[in-house]
Give the backbone structure.
Amino acid sequence: MPIFAYNMPMTKLLEKGIEAVRSLPADRQDMAGELLLGLATSQQQYGLTPEQIEDVKLAMAEADRGEFASDEDMTKAWKKFGL
């Protein structure tokens, strides 16, 4: 693993977050990296409401448990919207 030198110290919370991300599977690490890079390079300020953050957490937990809509459920949903 490469060793990096940082010019600026990280906050304790960021250090804890990065340490937690290290234990995730590669696809989740990539997702976290994309989010961090987006935050670091973005000139615009975007943010989720607390309710949206909770919805994302719930959706990720459902996905982690393998709780996805069946093909039949998706077909019904598409038909409902005329697709």
In short: The chain is about 65% helix and 0% strand. The mean pLDDT is 86.
